[in-house]
Design brief:
single chain, alpha+beta, Chloramphenicol Acetyltransferase, 5-stranded mixed β-sheet, 4-stranded mixed β-sheet, 13 helices, 34% helix, globular, Condensation domain-containing protein
């Protein structure tokens, strides 16, 4: 059975308001080394995934203003291209070349043994990219009907998650209300704003923590902070590293939470389904305090509530695009967003040389003063990718901060008390 009957494919598709909201931002992934199929094979597999229909998210044309998106699953060859041999599979060079390609929902660039993909967050996030990579590299057959069963629902994922997490467990409403009351911003005078005198200047920097060093940090965590997640450790280490390298860092950090955990059993979605929650980094409480706050957020279903509120706000605002506000205090305050995509690969593909495995995940910062750091674990290493505006933050200082993260993590884990 295949999903290629053209007469059944709709010209437009109604998407969730969250899709429209997220379509303002883009991400890029560069990974390798992998055994690269031919360009014809890549294009054929990309087209086969698009032919499945809108549920596969390929072929949708994201809009930042409308909930009905065009679905054009044919003529996608231009979205998949071969890299200039001169790029020599340097991830940063591939990333720059990828962003020179014609704009679109998803763009794929194939190097000799590295694959680069740029995509709109309106289409999805890591689960979509993970499946797409598996399809492109031949590990998954998109014509298999069972593959798409978890993504086909009569009810949209967000209402289903909200009903299951909160509607069927109303006792969560009280802690949610208490959290809202406790964290409601106080009415304080806003800092004097002025023109930053700069414009957008996207920049990407990467750092690698070798596997032996990452293992050492995990052993130290097990000995001194058992039960505390390494994500909490690295978040606090990043915050400290940026502050120690001369940046004025906001104590509030944003951490994405996957809301798929609240879906009914057997359900999934390839659309964006993560909630960015704010937490205050308390130097006295350290990673243990942050880990505890994160656990409380999960137990009260705060990620679901956040997505519901975001969806309502987006709909009320009619998805009007707001330009980035390039005004602010004389010394910009860095706002950190830390995301982890976990261990890669997660599905049916593999690195051709695990010892050389590399992954770069560059996600647009939320605003001029934002810095998005994405961590990912590959065989033998942990990679960190920072995306920011170098007209606002010095790139060399960002590099120094990333390089110092292991030492900051070691110091946090070695503290007594």
């Amino acid at each position: 059975m295949a999903f290629t009957a053209r007469r059944r494919q709709p010209a437009t598709v109604r998407v969730a308001s969250l899709d429209v909201q997220h379509s303002h931002r883009r991400s890029a992934v560069v990974l390798g080394p992998v055994t690269m199929p031919s360009l014809d094979e890549l294009r054929s597999r990309f087209a086969a995934m698009a032919a499945v229909g809108p549920v596969a998210r390929i072929g949708l044309q994201p809009s930042t203003a409308r909930v009905r998106w065009r679905f054009t699953p044919h003529g996608l060859d231009d979205a998949v291209r071969a890299a200039d041999p001169a790029a020599d599979d340097d991830p940063m060079v591939l990333l720059a070349a990828l962003r020179e390609m014609p704009d679109g929902g998803i763009r794929v660039l194939a190097g000799r043994d590295h694959l680069a993909i740029d995509f709109s967050h309106g289409l999805g996030e890591i689960p979509l990219l993970d499946l797409l990579v598996a399809v492109l590299l031949g590990g998954v057959d998109p014509s298999e009907p069972a593959l798409w069963r978890p993504y086909r629902h009569a009810v949209a994922p967000l209402p289903a998650a909200a009903i299951r997490a909160i509607g069927l467990r109303p006792r969560r409403l009280l802690p949610l209300w208490r959290h809202h009351r406790r964290t409601k911003p106080a009415a304080t005078a806003a800092p004097a704003a002025g023109d930053l005198g700069v414009g957008p200047s996207p920049a990407t920097r990467i750092a690698r923590i070798a596997g032996a060093e990452a293992d050492e940090l995990r052993r130290l965590r097990d000995a001194t902070r058992p039960g505390v997640s390494m994500f909490a450790v690295y978040t606090c280490a990043l915050h400290t590293a940026f502050a120690d390298n001369g940046f004025d860092v906001d104590p509030v950090v944003t951490l994405p939470f996957d809301v798929r955990r609240y879906l009914p059993a057997g359900w999934d979605t390839l659309a964006s389904f993560s909630a960015g929650l704010d937490f205050t980094v308390d130097p006295a409480a350290g990673p243990g305090g942050l880990h505890s706050d994160m656990g409380c957020a999960v137990r009260m279903a705060r990620p679901v509530a956040n997505l519901v509120v975001s969806s309502v706000k987006a709909r009320a605002a009619r998805w009007a695009r707001r330009g980035a506000d390039w005004s602010g205090p004389p010394r910009p305050r860095m706002r950190l967003l830390h995301s982890s995509i976990g261990s890669v690969p997660r599905t049916a593909w593999s690195f051709s040389d695990p010892a050389e495995a590399c992954i770069l995940v560059a996600s647009d910062p939320a605003g001029p003063c934002g810095v998005t750091v994405t961590t990912a674990t590959v065989p033998g290493a942990l990679w960190m990718t920072a995306e920011f505006h170098e007209s606002v933050f010095d790139a060399e200082q960002v590099c120094a901060a990333l390089d110092s993260v292991p030492e900051r993590a070691r110091e946090l884990l070695s503290r007594t008390g």
